[in-house]
Design goal:
Structural class: alpha/beta
Number of strands: 12
Distance between the termini: 47 Å
Order of helices and strands: EEHHEEHHHEEHEHEHHEEHEHEH
Number of domains: 2
Helix content: 40-55%
Strand content: 15-25%
Radius of gyration: 22 Å
Oligomer: single chain
Shape: elongated
CATH superfamily of the largest domain: P-loop containing nucleotide triphosphate hydrolases
Largest sheet: 6 strands, parallel
CATH topology of the largest domain: Rossmann fold
């Protein structure tokens, strides 16, 4: 791929880009060029495609972002990954938020730094907050992912534990979540242990099935490589060579959180996710997540990642809803 600057003046500019592999261009441009139109509308530039060459016209800073997006999406395709509207929007946001400087998310050069690989897909950060979150997950044994719904805190955490299992970094992954609605008295629910906790762990299961083929999920569940361990049943265990994920941690008590964190064994890691604005505990009961963040914020080896409404990657309306409720 080559680039040629054909600037007209100080304010307006033009850049020609040439792509070597014509077979990838339909995937890069999108059906009826909808990906190119997305970039045009988002950045107020004009893009003209002729064969394997693209011409971009507009303000220099906007052209720089458009060029970055197209180059990175082309690199994704070269690496066998997919391009989507979400990936394009994410690349635009990341480049623009860094003072319009090029934000290098080159899949072919830094696959281990900025991407999480699973069987079904490669997960990439879609905001500055998510970039920081992944960096924390890669470099710390205990990470707290805090933020409102839609910020990807649970999805990225699930991707990280699945990736670690697939690479052989751990022997098993353990997923836990407080069953607040049942008061942790799971014996009153019908079915076996997995059936009892399924309603509370459904969002985690949805993420796992998005990353692994269903037959592999079932096989790994049966072999306990993927284990569902409700918080009420974690007491007394020592978890070695495991990656442990506690979701909805805002609904733990202080005692439950201490119990959970002290399960960490040799060659193990933990991720704790939650939204401190959505505590469902009885009035007057302090959230174990809030307490842990206050106590452990300066402890070596512990990282706190605060995601905000700017990191919400769901429908754009979700971000506006969260901001409205936050006042």
């Amino acid at each position: 791929m080559s680039t040629k600057d054909t600037s007209q003046n100080n304010n307006e500019s033009a850049v020609d880009m040439r792509f070597e592999d014509n077979r990838l261009l339909p995937l890069l441009f999108g059906e009826r060029d909808r990906y190119l139109q997305r970039i045009e509308n988002s950045l107020d530039v004009q893009i003209h495609a002729r064969g394997n060459q693209i011409s971009i016209q507009g303000a220099k800073k906007k052209i720089l972002i458009a060029e970055t997006v197209l180059r990175q999406m082309y690199d994704r395709l070269l690496a066998g990954q997919v391009v989507s509207v979400g990936e394009i929007d994410a690349c635009i946001r990341l480049s623009a938020s860094n003072n319009n400087k090029i934000n290098h998310l080159n899949t072919s050069k830094k696959p281990n730094d900025m991407f999480i690989s699973t069987r079904r897909r490669v997960i990439t950060p879609r905001s500055e907050g998510q970039v920081q979150y992944i960096k924390f997950l890669q470099s710390n044994d205990l990470v707290f992912g805090l933020g409102p719904a839609g910020t990807g805190k649970t999805y990225l955490a699930t991707a990280m534990v699945i990736s670690a299992l697939l690479k052989g970094d751990v022997d098993r992954i353990i997923i836990s979540r407080p069953a607040v609605e049942a008061g942790e008295k799971l014996g009153f629910l019908p079915g076996d242990l997995r059936e009892k906790v399924d309603p509370y762990l459904r969002p985690i299961y949805d993420a796992i099935f998005d990353m692994l083929p269903s037959d592999q999920v079932e096989r790994r569940l049966e072999s306990n490589e993927i284990e569902v361990a409700p918080l009420a049943f974690m007491r007394g265990r020592t978890l070695s060579r495991a990656y442990v994920l506690l979701d909805e941690a805002q609904n733990t008590t202080t005692e439950q959180m201490k119990m959970f964190l002290t399960r960490l064994g040799d060659d193990s890691k933990m991720i704790v996710t939650g939204d401190t604005s959505q505590v469902d505990l009885p009035r007057g009961t302090k959230s174990g997540l809030i307490d842990a963040v206050d106590r452990l914020g300066s402890v070596e080896g512990v990282a706190l990642c605060h995601l905000t409404s700017k990191d919400i990657m769901r429908h754009p309306l979700v971000s506006r809803i969260v901001r409205a409720y936050d006042g």
